[in-house]
Write a structure and sequence with these properties.
Helix content: 25-40%
Strand content: 15-25%
Radius of gyration: 22 Å
CATH topology: Heat Shock Protein 90
Shape: elongated
CATH superfamily: Histidine kinase-like ATPase, C-terminal domain
Strand order of the largest sheet: 1-2-3-5-4
Number of domains: 1
CATH class: Alpha Beta
Number of strands: 5
Number of helices: 5
Largest sheet: 5 strands, antiparallel
CATH architecture: 2-Layer Sandwich
Length: 179
Amino acid sequence: MGCQYEASKRFANGAQQSDDLTMLGVHYHRQDEALALEDGISLTNDVKQVPELNQFVKSVADRLNLGSSISSQLMLAVEEAVVNVMSYAYPLGTQGDIAVEAKATKQWLKFIITDQGKAFDPTMNNKADITLSAEDRPIGGLGILLVQQLMDTINYERIDGKNVLTLKKNLQSDNNNNN
């Protein structure tokens, strides 16, 4: 920290300090973990392609030697997220593209779902109130709640006119090693 303080004094070039001085230091540790798997599938917004999506996710889980329980959880989470895109991202009657990428290291498995549909951040949706009866509960929110429970992290970004939803599963957690 002494070096940074001296650098700030040199930067001030003798000017009298007129306000508080705040310093923030950030040290980034890059994880150079090699990818164990990288694959993808292209779909359109047609729910008839869900079996193809599930086969892709199962293939990823099989290649990573994940147990059947984790494989089922991954299929359910990815299917829920992709079916929402298929159903709501594009105007009715319009064909749209959806890309699903899988990237895995020894520790993490990521599914990156990308579409060019209307902007929508499912992580900002109101949480479903599961304490209410089905009749009293407003429609919506249960799907993302399910995905949040099955995956370790979910992140949404709007990049270059595209929705990018990233679902991450920690492959090293104790919960996953017992399946």
